[in-house]
Amino acid sequence: MNIKKNTTLLVTAAALSAFTGCSETPKAVEPPPSLLDVNSAPSDVTFDWQQPFKMIISSFKNSDRYSDDSMFDLCDLTGDDIPELVLSPSSGASSQCDVYMLIGDTADLIATTGAYGTFQFIPSQTAIGFSYDGESFSTGEYLTFKEGSFNKEFDFYNNSGSASSGTTIRYEINSNEVTLAKYEEYLHLYRDFVTAQIGRKYTMGDSAVNYALYNTECWNAVMKDDQKQLYKEKLDSILAEPDLNDAAFEIVDLDVNGVPEVVVSTGILDDSQVRVFYLEEDGIKELDTTCDTDGGIHFDINAKIFYATNFDGNVQCWSIAGSDISGFKPSDSTMLCGRKYPLTSENIEKAFS
After folding, report:
1. pTM of the predicted structure, to 2 decimals
2. pLDDT tens digits for range 19-75
3. Closest by alpha carbon to 301, among 254, 353, 243, 235?
4. Own/partner pairs for 325-332, CB < 8 Å, 24+ apart?
5. What are 119's strand-pairing partners?
6. Of the candidates 138, 92, 135, which has an alpha carbon nearest to the alpha carbon of residue 115?
């Protein structure tokens, strides 16, 4: 199934025999395999969680918690290769995320946590948590996944930021005062591991919802082995580069035509490079872009334009779908992309298995 760029197949004409005036039945000529062929369209790949999650999102959008600042995320937080749905009502300081898990044929709430509409996910610990820093205090909590739900391991608090005012400094674990050494001992259990920020990946426009539910988790079934191999080799070569810190990658369809691209974020600094790899008939191609302030890029699903906004608010746009980028303004259906998976050998193998 070839659904990539405008590709023309040449059809051979039937040859007429010059001998004895007789015609010869032409033989069909098989076109060579195309690097743009895929196993199936994304819409043909279905998962049990899609409809239950869509119902939760629809219900949320009809509630009084929904606003133009609401966003959502899909991420496997429990290690079973099935994503959880994360709803983020807003980016306000007190805004916590709701986490839904597919249980049977319904989506059930299994956790509420976070601040500023996000939380930290710690894959190695199957844990989530957050830390909120006020003017004179810090507070937060960590939860781990056990027996079908996220359960709180401990919460923490300290008011060390008020030391200059002469206030007595307190360190607390589960509302009990502890020494600084004991406080650090608890936080060390989760704080010093690789984490990912979860909650605010997709806006809630209809196109973004449909893209998230019906495109993001299908690529292993959609792609053919030769496509996977090319992307794996490219990512392995980047991983081998020296001085690479905080790199990540994501499979995403930047022209929404059913053949995915791979976006590589080389770091989280504002001058980090974002590299976009895409397939053509003659092999893999690369487009270099700048990055957003968090190291990734944004993709407008309606416009088929991806873009980056720097600290000064300046926007740069690109499109591999031929979209007109002049006068571009983001629609209600955008997503952050490029930092879904930390760039490790294990994640490369898993993403293209």
Report:
1. 0.88
2. 344 455 555 666 667 899 999 999 999 999 999 999 999 999 999 999 999 999 999
3. 254
4. 328/300, 328/303, 330/298, 330/300, 330/303, 331/205, 331/207, 331/300, 331/301, 331/302, 331/303, 332/203, 332/204, 332/205, 332/208, 332/302
5. 198
6. 92
